[in-house]
Every structure is written in C-alpha cells, then in structure tokens.
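Cross-check.
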Amino acid sequence: MAAMVVPIHKLSHKKFRALLKKEKRKRKRQAAAKQREEELTCDNDIEEAEELEEEKELEAERQRLHLEWLEKEKRAQEEFLLKKEKEAAAQKRQEEEERKIREEWEQQQMKEKEEVEHKRQERREREEAVQKMLDQAESQLENGGTWHNPEAPEDYGTEKDKSFCPFFLKTGSCRFGDRCSRKHVYPASSQTLLIRAMFITFGMEESRRDDYDTDSGLEHSEEDIYQQFMEFYEDVLPEFKSIGKVVQFKVSCNYEPHLRGNVYVQYQK
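Predicted model, tokenized:
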C-alpha cells in the first residue's frame, strides 16, 4: 500500500509529529503482523513436521505389528502342519497295530480251527479203527473163531512213548507235579512200594527250608549221615518184611524236593 504523502511545508510541527507517530504505529503493526504471520507459518510447519513424524512412527508401528502377525501366522501354520503330521503318523501306527492285531487274531482263529479239525479227524480215525476192530470181532465170532483183545501199541507205557513222563516212569515222582505236560500213570497194583520223604536227615531238613542252599548240611560228615541211615534201615526194614519178602530197599538222598527222602521197597512177585 502506498504511503500517503502530505506536503511538509503545509503541516505544523504538532501535526507533523502526530503524523509521524501514526506512521510509526502503522509500521509497528505491519511488523507485528508480519512477525505473527511468520510465527504462524513456522508453527504450521512444525505441526506439519510433527504430524509427518507421527505418521511415520505410526506407519513403522503398523509395519512392525504386521511383521509380527506374519511371523506368528507362519509359526502357527508350521505348528499346525507338524500337528497334522504327528496325527497322521499316530493314525498310521494305530492302523498298523490294529492290522497286526487283526492278522494275529485271524491266525489264532485259523490255528484253533485247524486244531479242532485235527482233533475231529483223529477222533474219526479212532472211531473208524474201533469200528473196524468190532467188525473184525463180529466176523470172527460169526465164523466160529475166538476173540482176544488187540495187542498194545509198540512202546506203550515205556520211556519211548512220548506221551508219558519218563521221570515219573523211572522214579514215580516228577518235579512239575500236576503241572507236567505229559501223562502220569498210577498203576492199580505194583510190586514196588513208594513212600515219599520218609528218610530225612538234618541236611535235608535244612535244605527243605531253603531249596537254593544245598550247602546247609556240609557241617555233618558222611559218617553221620551213614549212621542215621543205618538206624533208619534197622528200624523200618523189619516192618516192611512183615508184609512180604523184600527184594530191594532203596532210599533217595537227593536234595530235589520231589525226590528228597523217598523210600522204594520192592517185594517179590
């Protein structure tokens, strides 16, 4: 704005000073307005800079949170895949175990079925053999012949017969007792008498308390054991002789529980 020019020579000193003050106030106002405008512009720049800085920080924070979310999502996906693989492996193992159990059960059923069929076949064969013998007997009787019982199979009732317990056939005793898988045949009559655990020495009595300590009777000499046997022999033999003629008199000094102190007395036929 152009300044108003007033000819100086027409103004008085008082008016001139008033005009000069007015001009100074005007300039001050203009300078203050300019300064305020500059300060306002500077404040706006600062605010814009602060806003821009805040925006950058917010963007960096959003980027950081996004990266963290991506990392967590990646780990979650990996854990999920690993869990699925473990579940698949466990399912596969379970199916394999079930398959094996089913195969074992089928094999067991097949084996039991074969055993049942084998037993049925053996029974049919025995029945056929018995029927055959009966037919032969009837034929002989019809033809006027005489009938006699068939001979026993070869090795029947001997150690060669695998169905009989060889230890029981030899000694009349078996360490397995009733749990033995083979037959224990008790004769209806015999010339040999068995009395279990009739002769007991101190060593046998100690070993009876502890079957694993076979050295418990070593403190007794052979002479002591022999002396005990002779006293036992002279005491019981006359009683056995009162029944019949004794052929053999044997005493087992074995420390095994099923043979310990057994006495065998054989009579004459």
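DSSP finds four helices and three strands in the chain. The longest helix spans residues 13-142. Passed to J.P. for a second look.
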